[in-house]
Amino acid sequence: MRTADPRIVLGLHRSRHQRHLLTSALDLGIHALDTSFNYHGFTSHKTLAQIGSDLLPHFTVSTKVGYFPGPNGAEHSLEPTRLRSALEQTNRDLARPPDLVFLHNPEHSLRMADPCPRDMLAQACATLAEAAANGMCGAWGVASWDPSALPDLIDKSMPTPSVLMVRAGLLVGIRTLEASGAAADAWGLNSLARWGMSPFGGNARDSVWGRVDPRVFLKPADPEPSTAQALRASQGPAIRPEAGPGRARGVGRRWCPRPCPCLWWRRSRSQSGRRGDAGPVPAGR
């Protein structure tokens, strides 16, 4: 059982890069933005600066590096020179250092690293740690879609990320959740440094969310409900369209009971938090 996290981050993995999205986010009190070096055909940072250079100072910006243009499309690499070059370009394109930079899905390259995946991970982490120390980003972290390869590779000689971001939610398998916890434990990260992403499995409109009420898996502010109460709650609608006193704004002008369980972000296996105002990072990869 975990408590709901009401903070929302505007994620650009599947979102259009349009100015009105940024202004609408600010109007709703959302001041955190997440993107990646490879989003929007490797032009996300430059596009954001073009459409909203005056708006970006109002956001904390997190991004990711790890995917690069290749002859056959995007390719993954943890090579320090390529990571450093991507960070330099990110700073130029945004015209500012990002607040947080993630090492993006390191498992993609680590699976092919033979015979020294531990050294590859250590060098990549050291590259981002050095970038943060040199002012190229405010902090660094690791974002992993499948962290199963990480726990056995982490040791105390490596730099420690400020944040580990992993998948969260009811559709994530227990092995992934356990690997996420093991990786965070290996780095000694507390609950505030563990962020969850994609709690709806990449599709918040999937029919499953109309049949299941995820509130029964969240820890309420009041004493824990009985089994009978939980079963009754799980049979109710996941989102109630009516508005009224004591209700919180939901997505698309729909309304949810408070505390709202239907917001984009949820705490991961451990409670998530934020560094500065960045908050947990968004639905997307």
Protein architecture, described:
The structure is a single chain. By secondary structure, the chain is of the alpha/beta class. It has 2 domains: 195 residues, NADP-dependent oxidoreductase domain (TIM Barrel); 56 residues, no CATH class. Helix content is 29%, strand content 15%. The chain contains 9 helices and 11 strands. A 7-stranded parallel beta sheet has the order 1-2-3-6-7-8-9. A two-stranded antiparallel sheet has the order 4-5. α3 packs parallel to α4 and α4 packs parallel to α6.
Descriptors:
TIM Barrel, alpha/beta, 285 residues, two-stranded antiparallel sheet, globular
Helix amount, in percent? 25-40%
Strand content bin? 15-25%
Low-pLDDT residue intervals, each spanning 5 or more residues: 227-284
Mean pLDDT across all amino acids: 79
Classification by helices and strands: alpha/beta
Query: What profile does the largest beta sheet have?
Result: 7 strands, parallel
What name does CATH use for the topology of the largest domain?
Answer: TIM Barrel
| Strand runs, count | 11
Count of separate DSSP helical elements: 9
Query: What sequence of helices (H) and strands (E) makes up the elements?
Result: EHEHHEEEHEHHEEHEHHEE
Gross morphology:
globular
Q: Strand order, biggest sheet?
A: 1-2-3-6-7-8-9
Number of domains: 2
Distance between the termini: 24 Å
